[in-house]
Design a protein that fits this description.
Keywords: Cell membrane, Membrane, Transmembrane, Transmembrane helix, Transport. The protein has about 300 residues and is mainly alpha-helical. It contains 13 helices and no strands. Helix 5 packs antiparallel against helix 10 and helix 8 packs across helix 10. It is globular, with a radius of gyration of 24 Å.
Length: about 300
């Protein structure tokens, strides 16, 4: 097990370096001068402009800029935004909000998707199954911003059950509605995946053998059917956590959530290389850690899986 974890950590190094290099290259290749955009319609002082270029290393070749940034990361320095605020402070302010939102959405998606998908798979061809498939298809077909605006109108304006925008500090109660909206599409996909996995598992020999031995349905469903059906579901949910982190941009914008998505979008527009690359670097690290944890959970879900050389 220890050797497997070490190999996975070593494999993560080229992934991290490659990701930061590609993102930094794409930011560097963006047209226009990001410093000129800071001044808007005003003409900046050439001396001030030159000083800013030197301060942010924009007068250096791309490869020099990249290695300077990479060296800063290993020292714990993520650079400074064009507004003068350290990127580490921006990360500390915005990432907890988005992670909180993503975790809430993941819990809603996983719990709801597994329960509905399990019942739908066990009742294949019946009214509940048909209703679940139709509703999930509707959610998959609708763009996320449509679901967000409809949820705001119904639950925020008409019923008054939730705030239409998130207040300062992003308290948990304000994030409930955005979390449901963020989880809606992936919830529908998880329902379909769980349903298909349950139907496939229920037809396997060991499940029929369990029925033949006279085991009760209450014993067979959680131990034999659900447990073996969760492997592809857990894989999907783990990869979806990274999608929720990055894909929260639209939801955060509509609900005014002060998180990563909105900040990252603004940084891309302004061409702030250090801010964009730092945000992506942290996202990649989270994504790699989550996938490692999920791989280790496979052994608990399926005892046949062993981590050997």
């Amino acid at each position: 097990m220890a050797g497997y974890i070490l190999r996975r950590l070593l494999q993560a190094i080229p992934v991290l370096l490659g990701t930061t290099f590609l993102i930094y290259f794409m930011v560097f290749a963006m047209p226009g001068d990001p410093l000129l955009a800071l001044f808007g319609d005003k003409t900046p002082n050439p001396a001030l402009l030159e000083r800013l270029r030197e301060e942010y290393h924009l007068d250096q070749p791309f490869i020099v800029q990249y290695f300077l940034y990479l060296g800063g990361i290993f020292r714990g320095d993520f650079g400074t935004s064009f507004s003068g605020e350290p990127v580490s402070e921006i990360l500390a302010r915005t990432f907890p909000v988005t992670i909180r939102l993503a975790i809430m959405a993941l819990i809603i998606e996983f719990v709801g998707g597994v329960i509905v998908g399990l019942v739908s798979g066990l009742r294949k061809g019946k009214l509940f199954d048909a209703s679940a498939l139709v509703i999930s298809l509707i959610f998959i077909s609708l763009p996320i911003f449509v679901i967000a605006f409809v949820a705001q109108f119904i639950f925020g304006i008409q019923l008054g059950w939730a705030r239409t925008t998130v207040s300062t500090g992003a308290p948990i109660q304000d994030l409930i509605l955005p979390a449901f909206v963020l989880a809606s599409i992936t919830f529908a996909q998880l329902v379909r995946l769980t349903r298909a996995s349950v139907i496939e598992t229920e037809g396997l020999d060991f499940v029929r053998t369990a029925y033949g031995k006279g085991l009760s349905r209450r014993r067979i469903i959680p131990v034999h059917i659900l447990r073996n059906s969760l492997i592809p579901v857990v894989t999907y949910a783990a990869t979806d956590f990274g999608v929720l982190l990055v894909g929260a941009t639209v939801t955060e914008g509509i609900f005014n959530v002060p998180g990563v998505g909105r900040t990252l979008y603004q940084a891309i527009i302004r061409g702030e290389g250090p801010t964009v690359v730092s945000f992506v670097t942290v996202m990649v690290l989270i994504y790699l850690v989550v996938n490692l944890v999920v791989d280790l959970l496979y052994g608990l879900l399926d005892p046949r899986i062993r981590y050997v050389k």
